[in-house]
């Protein structure tokens, strides 16, 4: 049972004495032969399992990690409430996005659990900062209640009446109007105007990390669909350095909000993954499949995969 469960470290305690038993005496009668044969077989099996325990342990861990990565990919790739994960990011639905990871975080084994916890922490930070923005308005801690409307064709400064789960409620001539969070989510460069200089107090370090996470999610929401489309069309549509540079520029729009070393490091991890994927796409366009495969393998082999790796992969190599 221990071996089937992958508990190979227990085998020396469970089988060590059996494997080390001395050869039993020769059978004195025909009745002695079957138990003597059974004991010899048990000793041999114990010795074999102990000798194989290290390689069996590695194989079990690899198979378990592969299965859990596939479960993670399925969680992240599913539609929840009619929305994909990217659509949840754009709508600032960070708590529902976080809920996708709850089961795996509690049931996965250590390596996968650490990966899930790291990505869940980003979503928790984003939720906390959004809640702080809402709470500050309700507490009268907004320094200014006006905001530039980020929607195309809606240029102008508007007054904020309130905030709800869907976004900001703005004053308009005939009453009020909803400005959805997605107006900011689809235009990451507008996020500075939403957060910076907004409160009568300074943002805490933790809140700034959450702000940085929101900005990364919005940039990733613009990057990932373009990468997915380019990968699907890699055999039929050319992809060159200009396309790669255009996609990479999406991260530049949120770089100023990555104020802590940790936030800058996270953005850089995503940027490196993006560079490798776009380099692979260029190689595929130029008929260099081996180079493309090498770059994609590096993205997938990262011990703590980026969101780009997680959302472009189905969990398999």
Topology:
Layout: H1 11-19, H2 33-77, H3 85-90, H4 94-99, H5 102-107, H6 110-138, E1 146-148, E2 157-164, E3 167-172, E4 175-180, H7 182-185, H8 191-195, H9 205-232, H10 241-252, H11 261-285, H12 289-301, H13 307-312
Helix pairs in contact: 1-2, 6-9, 9-10, 9-11, 10-11, 11-12
Keywords:
317 residues, elongated, 4-stranded antiparallel β-sheet, alpha+beta
Element string (H = helix, E = strand) = HHHHHHEEEEHHHHHHH
Question: How is the main sheet built?
Answer: 4 strands, antiparallel
Query: Helix share of residues?
Result: 55-70%
Number of strands: 4
Strand content: 5-15%
Instruction: Count up the helices.
Output: 13
Q: How do the strands of the widest beta sheet line up side by side?
A: 1-2-3-4
Helix/strand-derived class? alpha+beta
- Straight-line N-to-C gap: 30 Å
- Outline type: elongated
Structure description:
There is one protein chain. With 317 residues, the protein is α+β, with helices and mostly antiparallel strands. 61% of the residues lie in helices and 7% in strands. It contains 13 helices and four strands. Strands 1-2-3-4 form a four-stranded antiparallel β-sheet. The radius of gyration is 28 Å and the shape is elongated. The model has no long low-confidence stretch (mean pLDDT 90).
Short description:
This protein has 317 residues and is an alpha+beta fold. The chain has helices spanning 11-19, 33-77, 85-90, 94-99, 102-107, 110-138, 182-185, 191-195, 205-232, 241-252, 261-285, 289-301, 307-312; strands spanning 146-148, 157-164, 167-172, 175-180.
């Amino acid at each position: 049972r221990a071996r089937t469960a992958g508990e190979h470290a227990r085998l020396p305690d469970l089988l060590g004495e059996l494997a080390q038993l001395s050869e039993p005496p020769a059978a004195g009668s025909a009745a002695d032969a079957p138990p003597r044969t059974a004991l010899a077989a048990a000793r041999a099996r114990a010795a074999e399992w102990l000798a194989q325990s290290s390689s069996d342990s590695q194989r079990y861990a690899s198979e378990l990690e592969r299965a859990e990565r596939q479960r993670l990919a399925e969680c992240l790739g599913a539609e929840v409430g009619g929305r994909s994960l990217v659509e949840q990011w754009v709508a600032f639905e960070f708590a529902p996005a976080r809920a996708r990871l709850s089961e795996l975080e509690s049931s996965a084994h250590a390596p996968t659990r650490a990966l899930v916890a790291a990505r869940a922490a980003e979503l928790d930070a984003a939720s906390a900062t959004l809640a702080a923005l809402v709470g500050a308005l309700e507490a009268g801690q907004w320094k200014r209640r006006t905001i530039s409307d980020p929607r195309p064709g809606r240029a102008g400064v508007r007054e904020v009446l309130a905030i709800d789960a869907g976004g900001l409620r703005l004053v308009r001539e005939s009453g009020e109007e909803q400005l959805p969070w997605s107006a900011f989510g689809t235009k990451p460069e507008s996020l500075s105007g939403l957060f910076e200089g907004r409160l009568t107090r300074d943002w805490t370090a933790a809140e700034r990390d959450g702000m940085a996470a929101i900005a990364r999610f919005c940039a990733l929401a613009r990057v990932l669909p373009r990468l997915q489309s380019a990968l699907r069309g890699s055999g039929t549509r050319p992809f060159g350095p200009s396309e790669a540079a255009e996609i990479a520029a999406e991260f530049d729009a949120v770089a100023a909000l990555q104020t802590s070393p940790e936030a800058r490091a996270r953005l850089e991890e995503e940027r490196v993954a993006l560079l490798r994927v776009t380099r692979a796409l260029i190689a595929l366009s130029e008929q260099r499949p081996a180079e493309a495969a090498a770059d994609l393998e590096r993205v997938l082999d990262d011990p703590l995969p980026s969101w780009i790796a997680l959302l472009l992969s189905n969990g398999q190599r």
